Each structure stands twice: as C-alpha cells, then as structure tokens.
Amino acid sequence: MIIVPLKEGENIERALKKFKRKYEKTGVIKELRNRQAFVKPSVSRREQIKKAIYVQKLQREEE
User: Is 26 exposed, middle or buried (0-12, 13-18, 19+ CB in 10 A)?
Assistant: First the structure.
C-alpha cells in the first residue's frame, strides 16, 4: 500500500503528483503490460541483445 504523508494545508494536486510518482516507481503498470501477452524467453533475450548493441553503437558514436 502506498502512503503519501500530507503536511498541514498542502495542496491536493501536489499530493496526487507525489502519489503518481511513487506508484510509477513501484513498476505495477510496467508489469501489467508485460503480462498481457506471453513472450518466449528466446524472443525477450533477442530484444535485450538488440538493445545492448544499439546502446553500444550510440556510445561509440559519442566518443
């Protein structure tokens, strides 16, 4: 359960912003999206390798 402590007279919109930030950090939405469809381990591994190659390419170009 996410608890957002409020100070006396604090704006509701600011509290909502804090709540949303904390909720996003927990990764619940990301987990739900990942579980919508099954992805084979080989496919997910292939995507990780492609992403790593892309990042390395960007880092080499930066140097």
Answer: exposed
pLDDT digits (tens, 9 = 90+) for 10-55: 899 999 999 999 999 999 999 999 899 999 999 999 999 999 999 9
* pLDDT at residue 61, rounded to an integer: 94
The stretches of the chain forming alpha helices (DSSP H) are 12-26, 28-35, 41-62
Output the CA–CA distances (angstroms, integers) from residue 55 to 12, 47, 48, 59, in the order listed. 40, 12, 11, 6
CA distances from 1 to 4, 23, 38, 42, 61 (A): 10, 10, 27, 34, 44
Overall pTM surpassing 0.70 (yes/no) = no
* CA gap 33, 3 in Å, rounded: 24
